[in-house]
Structure formats: C-alpha cells, structure tokens
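Progress report, Aim 2. The chain analyzed during this reporting quarter is listed below.
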Amino acid sequence: MGLFGRFGASDGNPNPIHYFYSVGIGGKGVIPGRPLLDEFGIGFYYINVSNLQFTGPLQTRTGLRDEQGFEVYYNFAITPWMKFTPDVQMVKPAQQRFIDFSTPIPTVVNNNISTAIVLGLRLQMIF
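Predicted structure tokens for the chain:
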C-alpha cells in the first residue's frame, strides 16, 4: 500500500490556477481470496481558481469557482494477462454556468452546472 501527493502553486497572475493539490492511496491484493495482482486506488484533487485572474468578464460569464474531484477504482486480475477495472469519478467543475455565444445576444443556457458522476469500465489485455 502506498500514499501519494502533489502540490503546485503560483501567484495567480496571469495563471488562472492559484494552487492545486491531490492526494491518494493505492495498493495491491486487498480482497481476501483474490490474487495479489489485483490493485486499487482512491484519489482526491482540488484546484483553487485565481480570483485576480477571473474577476473580469470571464468570471461574470462563466461563474468560475474552485474545482474538486474524487476517484476510486479496483483493478481485478482475471488472469495474469487480462485485467478488468471498474472506476467511479466525481467532479465538481470550476464552470458554474454555460453561455451560448453562437447567438447574436449571448444567453445563459445552463445556470447550474452541477457535480458530475462518471462511471467507467476498462478491459486490459497484456501481450
């Protein structure tokens, strides 16, 4: 089992991201009776959007906010050469509203872009 972490920072000018961090844990063979080739991972990230950069028109149009997300997966070793991985991700996006600029007068199409849940499946064959 292992831990990981990352961190990045800027003064927020002109970079739109003031700081970013992610943390997580991963490991092998945590389900009793399953082979040690199984793997799992859990992670979280957070992005702080620079207020200095987006206090102007872009902030007004899109309603930017800080973004955060979470992911968990389990990688089942079906055989030593075939792995099946279900995955769940949760993302609270930085953009709060969607503006349609294709019309003569830009209009708010969606004023509440909410948290997204993304489900994934992967089948990997190692040759």
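The chain has one domain: 2-125. The mean pLDDT is 85. These observations will guide the mutagenesis work planned for the next reporting period.
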